[in-house]
Design a protein that fits this description.
By secondary structure, this protein is α/β, with parallel strands linked by helices. 34% of the residues lie in helices and 20% in strands. The chain has helices at 4-12, 16-22, 30-38, 50-56, 61-64, 73-79, 101-104, 118-130, 148-154, 168-173, 241-254, and strands spanning 24-28, 43-48, 68-70, 88-93, 108-112, 135-138, 162-165, 181-190, 200-204, 221-224. Helix 8 (118-130) packs parallel to helix 11 (241-254). The radius of gyration is 20 Å and the shape is elongated.
Length: 258
């Protein structure tokens, strides 16, 4: 059974400063925890209801040995970041960020500038995983990658995509001129008419303000997703950034780029 000190420690990881201090984060729920156990992430501790703890000891016996603590619903609720706690909560180590500039030269890379909504961030990571994009590079102004809401929205995909947070300006300025930077903007070229290519960088900006001014000069190919609203009809002023990411990835796939 988890002690009060353990519960207090796990709860502290709801906050970014303690996640950074201890290099640990929380993931919760059957789906996410099982994906975590399938990945190379190091699991520190798992708190689970008795029935589910027994199930985990089957297919993941080697991974969970000595790391499971049986908890009741009240204890899980104390640890959980959710309104209603699920079957389990796991504490895992935040891996050391690894970035190889050469990886951009051989693939399509998503770059995210100042994405503030954790739901959007997690959904974009999940989308990248679905379309086979291995690298997502986030600006330092983006929401913390290991924010519990980001982890929850990613639904386990975070553990299979290389997501790092760093200064985008430095990376973009070091790219070879042959690598196009497609920036999603309102006045760009129609994405369905542009000849997309790979390797490439896809740059997406903040939900409200778009791509920051200091990064716009690095865009070599401004692109936009045109609205389908008929002329004369009222149209929305923008598209959700996570939705935009999915559309761009889908278009890359349709052109056999991904």
């Amino acid at each position: 059974m988890p002690s009060k000190a353990e519960i207090s420690f796990a709860r502290s990881l709801h906050q970014k400063k303690f996640r950074q201090e201890h290099k640990l984060f929380i993931t919760e729920g059957k789906k996410a925890v099982e994906e975590l156990l399938r990945s190379v992430y190091r699991v520190k501790k798992i708190y689970a209801l008795a029935d589910y703890a027994e199930k985990l000891s089957g297919p993941f016996a080697a991974r969970v040995k000595g790391k499971i603590s049986v908890a009741n619903e009240k204890e899980l609720q104390s640890i959980s970041t959710l309104t209603t706690a699920q079957e389990c909560v796991a504490l895992a180590e935040i891996p050391e960020a690894k970035f190889n500039k050469e990886s951009i030269a051989g693939s399509v890379t998503l770059m995210l500038d100042n994405i503030s909504d954790p739901g959007n961030m997690g959904t974009i990571v999940r989308t990248a995983h679905w379309f086979g994009i291995e690298h997502v590079i986030c600006s330092e102004r983006c929401v913390d990658t290991y924010n519990p809401k980001v982890v929850q929205a990613a639904m386990g995909s975070l553990f299979f995509v290389n997501v790092i947070q760093t200064g985008l300006e430095k990376i973009l300025s070091s790219l070879k001129k042959s690598i196009p930077v497609y920036g999603t903007v309102l006045n760009g070229k129609n994405i369905y008419e542009d000849k997309l290519q790979s390797p490439a960088v896809i740059l997406l900006g903040n939900e409200s303000t778009g791509i920051s001014e200091e990064l716009k000069p690095f865009i070599t190919h401004p692109i936009t997703i045109p609205p389908g609203v008929k002329t004369g009809k009222h149209k929305p002023d923008s598209l959700n950034v996570a939705t935009a990411a999915a559309i761009v990835c889908s278009e890359l796939t349709s052109k056999n780029i991904l």
